[in-house]
Structures are given as C-alpha cells and as structure tokens.
Amino acid sequence: MVSLKKSYSVALLVSACLLVGGTAVAQQTPAPAPNYPDSIKAYVGAAKKQIKTIKLEEFRALVDQQKAGLIIDVRQENEFEDGYVPGAVNVPRGLIEFRIWKLVGFPNAVDMGKQMTLYCATGGRCALATKTLQDLGFTNVTSVDMVFDSWVKGGHPVAKPK
C-alpha cells in the first residue's frame, strides 16, 4: 500500500512539473538574454563604434523599398532554418570571411562596394561580422542593431526554407 501511495505521489509530482513546464512552453517565454563577461560587451561595443548600424524600423523600410542590398543573416544554419528575413542569405559569422566572396562576384569581378546589410539574433554577431567585412576592404556594409525575435513579434515578414 505504501508503494502505491509513493507511486501516486511521484506521478502527481511529475504531472505537475509537466503542466508547469508545458505552460511555460505554450506561453513561449523568451529565454533571458545571455550574460557575457564585460570584456565581450566591450569588444562588441567597440566594433559597433567603428561600423554603420541601423535599427529595426530603418531596416524594415529598406527591406520594403528593396534598398537593403544583399541581406545577410549571420546566424547559424539551424537558426536560419527556423525563419529569416525574406530575401536574406545565410552566411554564418564564423564563415563570413570565406563564404562572402561568391556573393560579391569572385573570381571574376569582385564588388568591394556592394551594399550589404547584416543581421543576427541580437545584434552582436552581425556587428562583429560587419567589422570583419570592413577590415577585408568592403566599403558599403551595415549592421542591423535589433533583436530578431522583435522582428518576428512585430509582425514583420518571415520566410522559411522550402
């Protein structure tokens, strides 16, 4: 009898945990922003001071007017597959130095002035990728300082791979 009561108690406890967990998932509570060391915040902040940045609203206007140039999503492939700004191409930040060239005309006629607008999940990776492209000699690169979840929640268009 004691064993049956323990089993019942455990089942109730597990059910309660699943219910609470399920509620949190159903509400899609965003994960808290990552907490990085001050050195990382300073590093990204320094990069942002050396590049051109725009906010979500300005980016949306450029997208709507088809004036954003080459839109590059520098998130990882799995993040991109979950949804992206229509017309964007995925070039993860860790590979940007190597994969950008085909997009700008290599090997025939490389366009170092090609307009490129980069975004990511929270604005950090695209700032660093924008700085990298500038360091490589690209002259018309802009970083979007936005949170991608805000783009989605704001009802802006989101595409998914086919």
Commentary on this structure:
This protein is of the alpha/beta class and 162 residues long. It has two domains: 1-30; 38-153, Oxidized Rhodanese, domain 1 (3-Layer(aba) Sandwich). It has helices spanning 2-27, 38-49, 56-64, 77-81, 96-103, 124-135, 148-153; strands at residues 52-54, 70-73, 89-90, 116-119, 141-144. A five-stranded parallel sheet has the order 1-5-4-2-3. The protein starts with a helix and ends in a 9-residue tail after the last helix. Residues 4-31 have low confidence and may be disordered.
Draw up the topology in text.
Elements (H helix, E strand, L loop, with lengths): L1 H26 L10 H12 L2 E3 L1 H9 L5 E4 L3 H5 L7 E2 L5 H8 L12 E4 L4 H12 L5 E4 L3 H6 L9
Parallel strand pairs: 1-5, 2-3, 2-4, 4-5
Structural class by helix and strand composition: alpha/beta
- Helix content range: 40-55%
Global outline? globular
CATH classification, class level of the largest domain: Alpha Beta
Q: End-to-end span in angstroms?
A: 56 Å
CATH homolog superfamily of the largest domain: Rhodanese-like domain
Sum this structure up briefly.
The chain is α/β, with parallel strands linked by helices and 162 residues long.
Observed structural traits:
48% helix, 5-stranded parallel β-sheet, 162 residues, 7 helices, 2 domains
